[in-house]
Amino acid sequence: MPKVLSVEDDELMIQEILSALSESGYEVDVARCGRDGIARVMAFTYDLVTLDRTLPDLDGLTILATMRDAGIDTPVLLVSSMSNVDERVRGLRAGGDDYLTKPFAREEMAARAEVLLRRKTPVRNVETCLQVGELAFDLLKRQASHHGEALDLQPTELKLLEYMMRHPGQVLTRTMIFEGVWGCRFDPGTNLIDVHVGRLRKKVSAAGEDPQIHTVRGSGYILS
């Protein structure tokens, strides 16, 4: 199932995008601001990004430039109410692969997404598996294993593990984890992260072995 990131702040438009793509068999993540969009596209692997031009914190072209400067060649479908020719040309020249103006028909968005995915060619080696010690994560099958044994993880636990495995040996603060996995501003009064990390640690730790997920007191967590 192709995985899409939609960077969009308008709730009505988010529902339109979700309907258009989910009904066509895509798995869709949503980032409601530019900074969350950048964090997600850096942390996770997507087959396509739909990107609003006018976000509350960052211009869509700034996000696009950040992606391309980082070597991320994921196809980007720019979505905007700015329909004049100059803006469309500007978006395409900035690195966008296609440009769709609002409002749009759901069928058209689905068709454009299909074309972009079909057009995509592997110009670089695509990472399909993460490995940290005896812990492995198959990105295509969305399956994690430890010592070759499949782990029974919930969707949020899979996202959490993928995020940590993409940053091995790095101390990850609760704020980083919260924004990278949940896509929200961290609430220091919640123990949500500690609960999920605790459950994940139990599942990835074989009997009699030290867990690979360690607590760094006063800082956060580290996977090593």
TrEMBL record:
MF annotations from Gene Ontology: phosphorelay response regulator activity; transcription cis-regulatory region binding
DNA-binding region: 127-224
GO biological processes: regulation of DNA-templated transcription
InterPro entries linked: CheY-like_superfamily (IPR011006), OmpR/PhoB-type_DNA-bd (IPR001867), Sig_transdc_resp-reg_receiver (IPR001789), WalR-like (IPR039420), WH-like_DNA-bd_sf (IPR036388)
Annotated OmpR/PhoB-type domain residues: 127-224
Ranges of residues in domain Response regulatory: 3-117
Residues modified to 4-aspartylphosphate: D52
GO cellular component: cytosol; protein-DNA complex
Keywords: DNA-binding, Phosphoprotein, Transcription, Transcription regulation, Two-component regulatory system
Superkingdom, natural source: Bacteria
Family annotation (Pfam families): Response_reg, Trans_reg_C
Listed name of the protein: DNA-binding response regulator, OmpR family, contains REC and winged-helix (WHTH) domain
Species for this entry: Paraburkholderia phenazinium
